[in-house]
Amino acid sequence: MLEAAGRNRNALAATPGEGWALHRMTPASRLNGANGIRTGADGRIYVAQVAGSKVSAVNVDTGLIETISPNGGGIVGPDDLAFDEAGNLYCTEITEGRVSMMTPGGEYRVIHGDMPVANPITYHQGRLIAGELRLGGRIMELDRDGGAPRVIYEGVPMANAFEVGPDGKLYFPAQGANEIWRIGLDGGEPEVVAKDLGVPDSVKFHPDGYIVSTQVYSGQVLKIDPRTGAKSILADIGPGLDNVAFVNGRTFVSHINGSITEIVEAGRTKPLVEKGLQWPLGLAVDEAGHVLVADGGFSYLLRPGEALQLAGMLFSPGFPGWIRDVAASGPDEWIVTTANGDVARWRPAAGESTVLASGYARLMGVAVGPGGDAVFAEFDTGKVFAIEGRAKGGGAGSGNVVELASGLDRPMGVAVAGDGTVFVAESGAGRVVKLVGGRRETVLDGLARPEGIAIAGGTLFVADPGANAVIASDLAGGARETVASGLPIGGAAGAQMAQLGGVGDMCGPMNTFNGIAAAPDGTLYLSADAEGSVLALRRL
């Protein structure tokens, strides 16, 4: 049995099938990432979680976490949040391009529905102000009764988490300029407060009057004098920082990976919530048994007996983009599909990537065949393609892309057998098919919503989040077995997690994908997105 844990702690325990053992390779995550944070009237920190379409509240003394707005609730992809004096919660929904409100009684409504890449939001003396994380973005005062907004300023190079300072002006990161600006609430021309930063993504005022700003690229938390722009380092936590909140003079910062850290004093920190995985998505194992874990805007390497090591992120040199699935193609070399519709070869250690094919709609699974062809599935069109001979050690070009199949029902996972036969999981049809001479033959049916698939030792393994199970089928005889059930994959009782749209020009649709991969030693690795961990399954 694998007891429920982390953000999935109220679920049922998972059960391995007869002859199988099941355990976690990484701890279960307690949050679905951590984006905007704000202190509530009750002294708890409220956390917006884009990946989980969730808002949670964290007790800073006990670490206890309570879900305030759940996945599947009325708030979708919240990036930042604010409260008014009546206790109404306002959230920017970055993938929906809107601002929504939840009342203390749990009722939802949209405040403003035309704000592409909605991100920062704050409330000050009866005024609700929100902005857009895009080049040329707007900062606007919103009418909470649904009237037309008032534009405070248009033309910001990516506004992020902001706050009104003691002088009554709005201070905000101009992220694209790598600067902090301020502007009067009635408009005018902005002034530069600080420059030459580490890509700031939040500006908050400590009760003592100085600015605390997280730097998403450098990973530093800076203390900045709003009068002179002079700065010093409060902490160096690592790339991916997001936001800041204060509780009774204590300083807390969030990280996109789901951690919340208290800065006790300059240079000294302690965790409130430990880091984890936001999703995770696709998995691949190389010949050395190293596992690459795709976690959207982050990817990690998992080596047996070691903790997760960051392989790359959206701000890393050569990172190919928001990654959905991965396949091993050589030492420190991986083929990936991205939310932007690209297939790319990525070499994390070298900090470089090469686009092999582009312009596709919602790419899902990818696999590399014995001859080096990269096979990938396009969800929206129901097609499967191959890049001939360019996946392993090819040059910089895109390669020759050929269509292998069309008319598939929401294809997701792909796998290639040792003889080159291509297998595809049709999530919409609840089956796995193989492609033979332009025809499709059903290999395994009666599934709920198959996603990731893998082949090892003549056996097909299927991650089926619709059934919260992993199924195995003997490709020679067709016999099937349940490898594990009650797994923390997908939603409760097989429900699908909220599917998110894109984030402006930065990222295409952020759809979930349950990956499964087989290691040379026979171990199966599974992305457990419901709890944010990687699981391992082994035959006894």
Automatic annotation (TrEMBL):
Organism: Novosphingobium barchaimii LL02
Name of the protein in its database record: Gluconolaconase
Top-rank lineage group of the source organism: Bacteria
